[in-house]
Specification:
The complex is a heterotrimer of chains A (324), B (333) and C (302). Chain A has 324 residues and is α/β, with parallel strands linked by helices. Chain A has a single domain, classed as 3-Layer(aba) Sandwich (Rossmann fold), CATH 3.40.50.300. In chain A, 33% of the residues lie in helices and 22% in strands. In chain A, strands 6-7-8-3-9-10-12-11 form an 8-stranded mixed β-sheet, sandwiched between helices. In chain A, strand 4 and strand 5 form a beta hairpin. In chain A, helix 4 packs across helix 5. In chain B, the strands form 2 sheets. Chain B has an 8-stranded mixed β-sheet. In chain B, a hairpin with a 2-residue loop joins strand 9 and strand 10. In chain B, helix 5 packs parallel to helix 6. Chain C is mostly helical and 302 residues long. Chain C has one domain: MetI-like fold. Chain C has 13 helices and no strands. The chains are: A alpha/beta (324), B alpha/beta (333), C mainly alpha (302). Chains A and B meet through helix 8, helix 9, helix 10 and helix 11 of A and helix 5, helix 6, helix 7, helix 9 and helix 11 of B. Chain A: One of its GO terms (molecular function) is ATP hydrolysis activity.
Amino acid sequence: MSEALLDIKDLTIEFGSGSQPLRVVDNISFAVSLGETVGIVGESGSGKSMTALSVLRLVPEAARVSGQIIFEGRDLLKLPKREMPAIRGKEIGMIFQEPMSSLNPLMTIGDQIDEAIRLHEDIPAPERRKRVLALLRLVGMPDPENRLSAYPDQFSGGMRQRVMAAIAMACNPKLLIADEPTTALDVTIQAQVLAMMLDIRARFNSSILLITHDLGVVAEICERVVVMYAGRILEDADARSLFSNARHPYTQGLLRSVPTLNDTRKRLYQIPGSVPPAGTIKAGCPFRPRCSVRMERCAVEMPPLRTYDPGHRVACWATAEAAA
Amino acid sequence: MSVLIDIQGLGKTFSDPSLRLGPRRPPVRAVDQVSFQILRGEALAIVGESGCGKSTLGRLLLQLIEPSEGKVIFEGKDLNKTTKAEMRQLRRKMQMVFQDPFGSLSPRRKVVDIIAEPMDSFGMTKSRKERREKVAELLTLVGLPSSYMDRKPRQFSGGQRQRIGIARAISVDPMFIVADEPVSALDVSIQAQIINLMQDLQEKKGFSFLFIAHDLAVVRHIADRVAVMYLGRIVEMGTKEQIYAAPHHPYTEALLSAAPQPDPTATRDRIILKGDVPSPSNVPSGCAFRTRCPLAADICRDERPSLREIEPHRTVACHFAAPRPISHRRAMA
Amino acid sequence: MTDARLSDFPVDDLISREALADERGLGDVVRQVIFGRISTQVAFFVVVVFIVVAILAPWIAPYDPVRQSILQINKHPSWDHWLGTDQFGRDVLSRMIHGSRNSLIFGLLSPVFAAFFGTILGVSAGYFGGIVDRLISRIVDMLMAFPELLLAILIAAALGGSFWNIVVVLTVAFTPGFARVARASTLAVKQEPYIEAAVAAGVSTPLIIFRHIVPNIAAPIVVLMTLWSASSIRIEATLSFLGIGTQPPNPSWGNIIRDGLSNMFATQWPIVAGGLAITIVVLAISILGDSVRDVLDPETAR
């Protein structure tokens, strides 16, 4: 792949005060190349959403963020706050899980998309209108001319998600961050939205950072997958090798435990135990209590991410031992 | 296997209850002429998207909602004709597991009191000691340490809470359990635990099971039979093998094909349905699915397809019912 | 089966210490209220002191509150009379101490009665809905239309300002407020899945109400109770000030101020003492109410 568009280095996000900080993201590094679709997969408390929000500097005020988030050569964490609005929406677009709460209920969708363009580009109204219509067509909105003056509550969940996507793509951003864009949607509508995202990628050649808990969605549209658990990256690989040759016991377990349409096993494989709440596991590998191949070392020391095949990084002592 | 519950022409219409003047909201047809049977000891799954009436159907069977028409006959007894007191006694035989593991456990009560609540209601606990012993037994059965019984729900994770909810449901040894999307609010790595647990418990206790889900993959492991619902109606029903091997209704086919599969190498000819699910307050004439159906013809607008038995145990409501093997299955085999 | 596999790993490992620290019984709630904030501690201390003083009034008051003395009129504070004397030569401190009985009993009695009746009405309306709800709600609306002070003055003027008359009047006046809050909270709690779970479990309706609804609407009721306690003390003072509350020569904070007002240019101490006592108690009870709400409400609980 080509050079990195987004390069996250040693990102750590903490909440709370001095002696007992709650570390929700713990020293993670990964990159998104130009035109690449990367999925961050994780369960609740994995820190995946916090990671996405930190790219736009939208984490809550109380959080302490350290490390580097380099976007096109600039460290976003070092930029003055007042320069961020110029990047949000223009360079980086975002789609949220709950499209209703992200849209203004008192503005027509035409105006909301128009505003997204007007904020960043100085072009005359008739041309903006053309662009709005083109965007709505792009996201698959039927009959866009008549929908311009409609309000968000007149749309279904899937249609709102299309409007959100139109706003996110209004200024042709280089990176699109989508935080669980299909989680709130029904299966058949989810398929529509995923098809739309593939279409967006094909036409704009944008990079996409997709946050999800659903391995099926990842398999559907991602080229590379970052697996997060309790604030750490456990595995980072291109999608094909992750799904055919997962190396971390967590990823392996997750893949085996997901019910699929065509397996005929009597029982599902299950990972024992519970997902730890964010920041509660302080030392060693966070997956250790649930891991079937854990060793003594895992309790003391977090395994570093080690590269196995090209582009396939895994953080696990047992994997390292088996490979040695 | 004999019939435990016989559902005949069950329907529910919710209408705007307010007394205000001016236009009322149109009535919502949540469940429409649903008939089927649940056998003793079987696991039946009801699958459909939001607004298809699957949760309402589950609550109608337990009489948590009163039906607008039709009958629910439980062990030969018509539930509509029972008195309130009789119905309360019948609840000992039918229990429910809820979708929301956080909301369905009272936050102020201890686990022991939550689990013992159904037993308390039917006077099944003689002494404090016996009550605690029974709860300890149930906790062990659902895979939680019995020492947890004096804790409050908020100290548990979603999966652990769902185990508590399951322990509550099986505490009175019911003959029938409705599980309303019991895993959809849980983390991916926890879902398999709960599905396996319920499957094990059903094998051990032999109760009949109505498992409500929005996802066909989840019920693959637990169901003996599957019913697919769309806008308040059952569109297809059959054994698990029949449904997954070759759905006959185009909606079932679309549901199967739309589910994202964790395998990037699978080749897919996805069927992507156009448009949205119509509002249940404004169901299309004829076949409710026709507005999104790739096969829709004139007859679908004029005539509502009835559920026809096309092979043993298998009913479909479609004018063009025919086997539709799923493409990605072939690719992966 | 699952149990064997689950016991293979340390479950306790996974339950955070924060969650364990969260195990709270009623005793913990009380402790948390009292030891929560400095302001709460002070408020709690103040209320306790006033209650103790009211209970022990006959023993700790230095003089008889109604004994007059022509020789000791309008004295300023001294070692003999800490708060001075009034125009009849009565010891102001003793009158304040005895007066706290009338004021506090008032302050606590009617809100407690009103909370009891209001909760019954509100929960019935909210839980059963339909015709029950409509009937209760209309009655409550009607009562709400009367300002409570006006109602109190009306009844006190008609029936005389005996102690129980005023308690009954204030109870009637406060009940609608409690009924409304109880109804609204019941409607909200009724939507919670655990109520449906209780119905499905076969729990009888009275048990659902007492075990699942009432404990979960207690927080706003308690807060309202403290608010009305403060108002109730104020209203008693107002009625007594207007001459239709506690009847002289019996003291209450209200009529101490009233007597003091007519004699304001001779000595200011009765007004100051009465006014300050009312202000301090009302403030303390309100602060306490806020803390109780914060602790009881799972949303704002620390």
